[in-house]
Design a protein that fits this description.
Layout: H1 2-16, H2 20-31, H3 35-38, E1 45-55, E2 58-59, E3 63-73, E4 77-86, E5 89-100, E6 105-112, E7 118-125, E8 131-140, E9 145-158, E10 161-168, E11 177-185
Antiparallel strand pairs: 1-2, 1-3, 1-11, 3-4, 4-5, 5-6, 6-7, 7-8, 8-9, 9-10, 10-11
Length: 187
Amino acid sequence: MRFAIVAMTMALAAQDKVDMAAMMAKAKKFTEPGAGHKALEKFLGTWTVDQRFVMAGKEGKPEMGEQKCDWALTGRFIECKLSGQMMGRPMESRMIIGYDNFKMSYRMVTFNTIDTAMNTAEGDMTRDGKALIMYGTLDEYLTGEHDKMVKYLWRFESADSHRFEVHDLPIGEQNTMVILVRSTRKK
């Protein structure tokens, strides 16, 4: 789709005798990876994960797994593949995450073998670069809730560890975390 838009833009530019070099220079800030993409390198690597449900502020039993994160398209998008246990069953999940220069925000899509949903979210890195906060929606099939607001939060504790939290926002203002995943880089 984007290739078609670029082709149409080029055709219109040729018809209107627009300065194509100036147009391409202007487009570069939206089409080339930059600092937002560089920040994604925090995800790269192989990680041991400890994931658990959290209810009313109390962490459940940990279930172990492994996550591998690598560039899906070098310098642009990262794909993370997680395999492990969830609710005592084998589980796999995928996350694609990137930075959208035009929207000036991080975007992600996740999907897994626990259900058939594709969840999306959008957000920003904190000014200090120590956390990435995204907001999105998900469907809660057990309760019949559609488009429930959730917050996804990564806390980058060090180069070799981070934690990922899922917060169920309709719960209220306290004890909203429902999933916690601790990741430690494999050496």
